[in-house]
Design a protein that fits this description.
about 525 residues, single chain, five-stranded mixed barrel, 4 domains, globular, alpha/beta, GMP Synthetase, Chain A, domain 3, OB fold (Dihydrolipoamide Acetyltransferase, E2P), 15 helices, six-stranded mixed sheet
Length: about 525
């Protein structure tokens, strides 16, 4: 029997409308605060009634080392309070949506039996609401806070335009970079591992694709199951499961083997150190996280990897090499010669603001033709990164007309593997930043990086989102519009270096202390 059941069993219907809202324990202050809600339509609880509930709680809880504080709050179902609660819900859980949903987008209507909430949004956001079941989640949140039934619906307005790319993006939290270390591959067992910087297992807290981890094997087993469907139905298939453990954690692993790989897999045994690539999923049977392996290599631990000689040779042979140089800017002082001060978004942090040009707009197949980037350290623009990239396919005429980049310009450029490795080294300890990069630039960089075993897992900041929460009075949030509004300049738009530098200036301008 849980606390609520005990409460109802003890008091019956006497306090049927009193609902437990939250229990907050602050060990540092030695306080446990329990908050109850009850409707404003009910008569106010008397001191005797409050004391009766408090004594019951004290009799059930063992908190000798903590001071107990009981709060009783009357709930008023008013439109202003409901609106405030809705906006706070989005700000805390779905920050990107909160940047353009305001009180004008929300309609609230009280009925005798419930409260109707209608949210007006653009067509583009509909799938995100459906995928994350936001209307149901919001209705539940409101019921918990106002003790009445809520019906939340989404109304699509075809005329609304949303510049934020929210498709396939989890925006409730900001991903932090996982700590990585270096290993050296001795021999590939299954597949070919190119990524030699595994993350620590303890940083994996949920399902995740393209995971690279390393550790010692234990509890290594080979098993078989009978296939029920497909061409080989009725035939056995081997699979291997084992535990992989590094110094910070452990995870169950499973590998479904083809016949050709069974012999090499059978050669593995406990205590071997391996590098593993695969997808982390939740087990259907135990609800634990399981790494489904697709690549596995014998490795050695904590070996510093030297740059490959072939990359050096490639760098010397190309005409258009990666350009990395120190730069200075006059923007870091104001018109009176005083140093510009920034807020905590900038102070003490390093950003690499980047932009790419590509062969087209398909994030699943098009390739990078140019990368431009600016490194900002503690509010100071320090370094420039610029390079053409030689794609494996031709640049279409219409793309050349937009970017000015021709096939002749990239003919002697370094290939993508080399440039991305250089860009990784340039940006590995920084927060990646760009304008509207989440749905395009970042996806292409990550996809092409994964092809060469380079994992861009940096923290990310999008200046488009930053501009939205800054409430700029602009007709749209395109880079050129924002640059003009802030009194900056953008020369040579649709060239990576120019766009990256302009975005860096936008970032700094938006983060100036007022």
């Amino acid at each position: 029997m849980n606390f609520e059941e005990e409460f109802r069993s003890h008091f019956g219907d006497k306090y049927s409308n009193v609902v437990l809202k939250e229990v907050v324990v602050k060990k540092s202050q030695g306080i446990c605060t329990i908050t109850f809600l009850y409707p404003s339509t009910d008569k106010e609880l008397s001191d005797a009634e409050k004391k009766e509930i408090t004594n019951f709680i004290k009799s059930k809880l063992e908190i000798e080392k903590l001071s107990l504080k009981i709060k009783f709050m009357r709930v008023f179902v008013e439109e202003k309070l409901i609106l405030k609660s809705i906006l706070e819900f989005f700000e805390k859980k779905y920050i990107l949506i909160s940047t353009y949903i305001n009180e004008k987008n929300i309609k609230i209507k009280k009925t005798p039996i419930d409260v109707l909430v209608e949210i007006v949004a653009s067509k583009r956001i509909e799938n995100f609401f459906i995928e994350h079941k936001i209307t149901a989640e919001l209705a539940k949140h409101l019921k918990q806070n106002f003790l009445t039934e809520f019906v939340v619906s989404l109304q699509i307005d075809e005329n609304l335009v949303d510049d934020v790319d929210i498709e396939n993006v989890e925006i409730s939290t900001v991903a932090r970079p996982n700590k990585r270390y270096s290993v050296e591959i001795i021999k590939d067992i299954v597949g070919t591992n190119k990524m030699t910087r595994p993350e620590y297992i303890s940083f994996i807290t949920g399902p995740k694709e393209a995971v690279v981890v390393a550790g010692f094997i234990s509890k290594f087993n080979r098993r078989e199951f009978i296939r029920k469907t497909g061409k080989f139905a009725g035939q056995p298939k081997a699979y291997y499961n084992f535990v992989l453990q590094d110094e910070k954690g452990a995870i169950d692993c499973i590998y479904f083997s083809s016949k050709t790989n069974q012999q090499v897999m059978d050669s593995l045994e406990d205590s071997m150190y391996v590098l593993v690539h695969g997808n982390v999923e939740k087990s259907k049977f135990t609800d634990k996280l399981v790494l489904v392996v697709d690549k596995l290599s014998l490795a050695t631990k904590d070996i510093e990897i030297e740059e490959k000689p072939k990359q050096e040779a490639k760098k010397k042979k190309t005409k258009n090499v990666v350009e990395i140089e120190n730069i200075t800017t006059l923007r870091q002082v104001d018109m009176f010669g005083s140093k510009v001060e920034y807020n905590d978004t900038i102070n003490g942090k390093t950003y690499v603001v980047f932009d790419i040009e590509t062969t087209g707009l398909d994030v699943s197949s098009d390739e990078i033709t140019e990368i431009g980037a600016v490194k900002i350290v503690d509010g100071q623009i320090k370094e420039k990164f610029a390079s053409f990239v030689k794609p494996t396919k031709s640049i279409p005429k219409e793309v050349t007309e937009l970017t000015g980049i021709t096939n002749e310009m990239v003919e002697d450029a370094p290939d993508a593997e080399f440039v991305l490795q250089e860009f990784y080294e340039f940006s590995k300890d920084a927060i990646l930043c760009g304008h509207n990069i989440i749905g395009f630039d970042l996806k292409i960089v990550k996809r092409m990086g994964n092809e060469y075993g380079i994992d861009f897992d940096n923290e990310v900041l999008d200046t488009l989102n930053l501009a939205r929460v800054s409430h700029l009075l602009v007709s749209n949030f395109k880079l050129g519009t924002i640059v003009k509004y802030l009194g900056l300049t953008l020369e040579g738009a649709h060239r990576a270096w120019n766009d990256a530098y302009a975005t860096a200036e936008v970032l700094l301008k938006l983060c100036e202390k007022k």
